[in-house]
Design brief:
- Three copies of one chain form a homotrimer.
- Chain A is an alpha+beta fold and 356 residues long.
- Chain A has two domains: 123 residues, 3-layer Sandwich (Rieske Iron-sulfur Protein), CATH 2.102.10.10; 218 residues, Naphthalene 1,2-dioxygenase Alpha Subunit, Chain A, domain 1, CATH 3.90.380.
- Helices cover 20% and strands 30% of the residues of chain A.
- Chain A has five helices and 17 strands.
- A seven-stranded antiparallel β-sheet of chain A has the order 11-17-16-15-14-13-12. A four-stranded antiparallel β-sheet of chain A has the order 5-6-7-8, with no helix packed on it.
- At the A-B interface, helix 2 and helix 4 of A face loops of B.
Chain lengths: 356, 356, 356
Amino acid sequence: MSDQNTPYLKNTWYVAALSTELDKDLLSRVLLDTKIVFYRKEDGTPVALLDRCPHRFAPLSMGKQCGNDVVCPYHGLAFNSEGNCTSNPHGNKRIPTKAKVPSFPLMEKHGFIWIWMGDEVADENQLPDYTTLDTGHDNAIAYTYMKWPCHYELIIDNVMDLSHVDHLHGEIITTRGQLSPQIPKLEENAGQLAASWEWKQTPPMLIFNDFLPEPGKEASHRVTVTWAKPANIQLSIGCSQGNQPITFESEESVSQYDLHVCTPESENSTHYFFVTRRNHHVEDAEYNQIKIQNMHAAFELEDGPILNAVEEAMETPDFLSLDPVLISSDAAPVRVRRTLKALIEEEHKTKLTLAS
Amino acid sequence: MSDQNTPYLKNTWYVAALSTELDKDLLSRVLLDTKIVFYRKEDGTPVALLDRCPHRFAPLSMGKQCGNDVVCPYHGLAFNSEGNCTSNPHGNKRIPTKAKVPSFPLMEKHGFIWIWMGDEVADENQLPDYTTLDTGHDNAIAYTYMKWPCHYELIIDNVMDLSHVDHLHGEIITTRGQLSPQIPKLEENAGQLAASWEWKQTPPMLIFNDFLPEPGKEASHRVTVTWAKPANIQLSIGCSQGNQPITFESEESVSQYDLHVCTPESENSTHYFFVTRRNHHVEDAEYNQIKIQNMHAAFELEDGPILNAVEEAMETPDFLSLDPVLISSDAAPVRVRRTLKALIEEEHKTKLTLAS
Amino acid sequence: MSDQNTPYLKNTWYVAALSTELDKDLLSRVLLDTKIVFYRKEDGTPVALLDRCPHRFAPLSMGKQCGNDVVCPYHGLAFNSEGNCTSNPHGNKRIPTKAKVPSFPLMEKHGFIWIWMGDEVADENQLPDYTTLDTGHDNAIAYTYMKWPCHYELIIDNVMDLSHVDHLHGEIITTRGQLSPQIPKLEENAGQLAASWEWKQTPPMLIFNDFLPEPGKEASHRVTVTWAKPANIQLSIGCSQGNQPITFESEESVSQYDLHVCTPESENSTHYFFVTRRNHHVEDAEYNQIKIQNMHAAFELEDGPILNAVEEAMETPDFLSLDPVLISSDAAPVRVRRTLKALIEEEHKTKLTLAS
């Protein structure tokens, strides 16, 4: 797919993989309709190359790593981490000038491999500050990844509009009907959009109840979802009793700090990455497993099937073109869609200007 | 799909479901490329709504029925049997003016739910008279439904041209080669087209033989297939001995009265509904099961695979555009195709006139 | 698909089937996007007809053979080996003038059924001389067929460029790295293109080693692949010790004579036919089985998956349009692609000239 027609924002950071996914094997993954091979150099530095040999177009990921290079499975051409051909075993063994594979800038941070797929120079400062993930007990953080067959913006919608929680999800994260009637508070700051809901409920949310001073008694709750381009949503949720502040840092609140990242594989498939860190019950490694299992169960059995059905009904990725009936809880996801669309259009314009 | 481009006749009655298919659960079914949710109100009245919430386009059929309303699974909006939103649990709970779902007129008759999908006012008088189905022993009538992956007009062709019987089907309904040489008699009446074949055979058709006065001896046979728009074929078949009249009402003939209805799901998939009533051996409920099993076996193992292969070979739904070699037995199905095409073109013209 | 737009060379011989595939049953096979039914007349002559009844377009291959005719399964029309309708069992039984099915010239040679699908008169002299296949011990020749889901030119590339052998394949046909550094010698003769490689290796190729005078000791090797239009590749491979000539006919060399034929089913599927004759160990019938098993294993587990991945990466059948990086070993396959493309363009031009 030519860059000219890409429906994605390109000059930005997407999560390409969990850090733990890059081990001894070559990893092949399609991101933004582009097939990429990932591996680590001998010093551990991650590498991303277009997964296509420029000779006969075999996937390099079907070959093997040899030192810091990757060797094509079909005719044995080797390429280094910058994508330059380092060996041609055929005929006079001369390396053709054109024998290069595109490589992509990577950054390893917060347990993720981030990739920059645009033509502009990769800008490390564009990544939002998620350092909260980096400190705390090792057993209080858990990662997961799943691929889901729907457009990534439907997953962004789903996380940015939490008013669906009491209608779609089960007992474990119910707000007892308290969240829906709240109109979320929106805040825009440096290109990021945050939506917050606050409410009281009795008993408190079941995921937090046991860790509160008075389980079963009324507690104040707050959840904030903060979108940053292109597809990062940081979700903070917690509760407290007795008017204590609800922040991840406060020992008086029971809170968690999550990051949802939706990287498009294609226009109807998404790599969904997720990390959750909590400020309570931090030593229990088994509890990490339970958190991740619950995330999978909720998404795969409840949100995911609805999103697939919605995508089928829409017949276009452009939700707003369908003249939907909007309600108060749509403010945040709709604003995210408009912002992202504007950023993509701006990028296309810049490209045209540079080209002319 | 916009109405302007629909390849189907719209202002007419199609069978949407067997009456027995509408029970306690929501039923989702695609008819004429349109996804519809069906349910019964508390008083039993059947309801048909577009199966798409106007908010975020989730299928209402994934939600639940609540009294006479259906509740969206994603954010809990409720809609009544006319498609009006009756509840919005979010924010100030105001119901948006646009929050409406299209509803479709239904009619329950002869054990079927009939649906009217056009823009004109539903006209109950347009349904042909099939009241023969309504009287008789409860064990002498049997219904079935199957979905088949081919264009509905191929199934109409198949039933309107019975000359294939001795070539494609097995012993149970063989005419011993007597039917093919007969040129069917065509009659057109009030928009309905009937084709009849008459012949004698020894032994009689096996499905009737045991119920005749002299099993194994020559009998006169008659079969009539009568098409009515859009996709209803009433098939009467029977036989008698000793020059007795062959009618469903006559006690001297062994006869059955069937209705085949082919409702398009899409351009290459059909909902095939079938009912058969007989005037003999009326009390045997197990015989009903056998009749239905035989219908399935004949269609699924013999007609159906041929129709699928024909559709694949045709590469277009427009049979007549392929310049087929026609023979005498094609008169009825070809006339049905021409009539239906003219009706659809007329409907498109009317729509254009109204629009201008 | 109309002839005007066909991407294939038409006035030429393709293998349609192994001789042994035509037995008592009708065989249906799609060649060059065209569905064809094959059978043998009572005297054994093979017949090829368009697999589509001109009446209602049912596949004749779903019917049955009756003497020298084939009978349509749907309404019983019969067609002879020239495609003329010989029986219509309906109405007055008159045979409609238009009731004809296209038939295709066949030639049975070297254990294959060859088909001519173009409009020009079939020219038996166009088939290259493969008579080497016809003489020798019955247990020294083995045939196989497989269908593979990729464009046929990718398989031609693969056989015409043997420099992939040491990179993609395993121990059994390794040249110990000796083949890749050789620049193949190209020879063009009467429209056929041959590429040859010569080298010495120790130990000799394992498929030949045991049959040499001094197993394990150095041997001279030669392989030649000779392409003839449209998709025939004759591969000769062998080795000898002590400067003996390497030819199939020479008793001093251990050699085999193979034919690879790739007939397009469609633009992304190929009928791959293969025959191998050897000049050594000729009486062992079980060894034939092993040769065929090895051919399947190498292609299905090694070449085939790479070709599928290459096709997916290319997104077009036109390899040269993708500006590939070419190396010395690409000379032969690239010249074949250019020759075949020129022949197809010439055929289209001739057709246009004739039409105007």
